[in-house]
Amino acid sequence: MNPKISDFGLAKIFSSNDIEGSTKRVVGTYGYMAPEYASEGIYSIKSDVFSFGVLLLEILSGKRNSGFHQYGDFLNLLGYVSIFYTLA
Protein backbone atom coordinates (compact mmCIF):
# COMPACT_ATOMS: atom_id res chain seq x y z
CA MET A 1 0.00 0.00 0.00
CA ASN A 2 1.38 3.43 -1.00
CA PRO A 3 -0.70 6.26 0.47
CA LYS A 4 -0.61 9.58 -1.38
CA ILE A 5 -0.95 13.03 0.17
CA SER A 6 -2.06 15.77 -2.19
CA ASP A 7 -4.18 18.87 -2.85
CA PHE A 8 -3.21 21.50 -0.35
CA GLY A 9 -5.30 23.94 -2.34
CA LEU A 10 -3.60 27.32 -2.38
CA ALA A 11 -0.85 26.49 -4.87
CA LYS A 12 -3.38 26.22 -7.67
CA ILE A 13 -4.59 29.81 -7.07
CA PHE A 14 -1.29 31.25 -8.36
CA SER A 15 -0.49 32.06 -11.95
CA SER A 16 2.98 31.13 -13.18
CA ASN A 17 4.50 34.54 -12.29
CA ASP A 18 2.95 35.01 -8.82
CA ILE A 19 4.96 34.59 -5.61
CA GLU A 20 2.43 35.97 -3.11
CA GLY A 21 -1.17 37.12 -3.14
CA SER A 22 -4.12 38.01 -0.96
CA THR A 23 -7.79 37.25 -0.86
CA LYS A 24 -10.87 38.67 0.85
CA ARG A 25 -12.42 35.22 1.29
CA VAL A 26 -10.42 32.85 3.51
CA VAL A 27 -11.42 29.22 3.02
CA GLY A 28 -10.05 26.00 4.44
CA THR A 29 -9.57 24.20 7.73
CA TYR A 30 -8.16 26.54 10.38
CA GLY A 31 -5.86 23.96 11.96
CA TYR A 32 -3.98 23.59 8.69
CA MET A 33 -3.90 27.21 7.49
CA ALA A 34 -0.76 29.29 7.72
CA PRO A 35 -1.31 32.01 10.37
CA GLU A 36 -0.88 34.89 7.91
CA TYR A 37 -3.52 33.38 5.62
CA ALA A 38 -6.01 32.65 8.42
CA SER A 39 -5.75 36.09 10.00
CA GLU A 40 -5.07 38.41 7.05
CA GLY A 41 -5.89 36.47 3.87
CA ILE A 42 -2.28 36.69 2.64
CA TYR A 43 -1.12 33.51 0.96
CA SER A 44 2.06 32.37 -0.73
CA ILE A 45 3.70 29.15 -1.79
CA LYS A 46 4.83 28.83 1.83
CA SER A 47 1.18 28.45 2.91
CA ASP A 48 1.00 24.97 1.37
CA VAL A 49 4.33 24.07 2.98
CA PHE A 50 2.89 25.06 6.37
CA SER A 51 -0.18 22.85 5.80
CA PHE A 52 1.99 19.92 4.81
CA GLY A 53 4.16 20.48 7.89
CA VAL A 54 1.10 20.30 10.16
CA LEU A 55 0.15 17.02 8.50
CA LEU A 56 3.65 15.64 9.10
CA LEU A 57 3.46 16.71 12.76
CA GLU A 58 0.18 14.80 13.08
CA ILE A 59 1.77 11.68 11.63
CA LEU A 60 4.90 11.89 13.80
CA SER A 61 3.17 12.81 17.08
CA GLY A 62 0.13 10.58 16.70
CA LYS A 63 -2.04 13.56 17.72
CA ARG A 64 -4.63 15.32 15.66
CA ASN A 65 -4.53 19.09 15.20
CA SER A 66 -7.64 20.44 16.87
CA GLY A 67 -7.62 23.97 15.57
CA PHE A 68 -5.89 27.29 15.17
CA HIS A 69 -6.36 28.86 18.62
CA GLN A 70 -5.13 27.84 22.06
CA TYR A 71 -6.94 28.72 25.27
CA GLY A 72 -6.31 28.01 28.94
CA ASP A 73 -4.55 24.70 29.46
CA PHE A 74 -5.67 23.49 26.04
CA LEU A 75 -2.88 23.29 23.46
CA ASN A 76 -3.34 22.77 19.77
CA LEU A 77 -0.83 20.55 17.95
CA LEU A 78 1.64 23.37 17.29
CA GLY A 79 1.64 24.35 20.97
CA TYR A 80 2.15 20.72 21.97
CA VAL A 81 5.12 20.33 19.61
CA SER A 82 6.56 23.69 20.70
CA ILE A 83 6.79 22.50 24.32
CA PHE A 84 8.75 19.42 23.32
CA TYR A 85 10.95 21.44 20.97
CA THR A 86 12.00 23.80 23.79
CA LEU A 87 12.70 20.85 26.10
CA ALA A 88 15.00 19.20 23.54
Automatic annotation (TrEMBL):
GO cellular component: plasma membrane
Signal sequence range: none
InterPro entries: Kinase-like_dom_sf, Prot_kinase_dom
Domain Protein kinase per the UniProt entry, residue ranges: 1-88
Molecular functions (GO terms): ATP binding; protein serine/threonine kinase activity
Keyword terms: ATP-binding, Kinase, Nucleotide-binding, Serine/threonine-protein kinase, Transferase
PANTHER family: OS01G0366300 PROTEIN, RECEPTOR-LIKE SERINE/THREONINE-PROTEIN KINASE SD1-8
Name this polypeptide is given: Protein kinase domain-containing protein
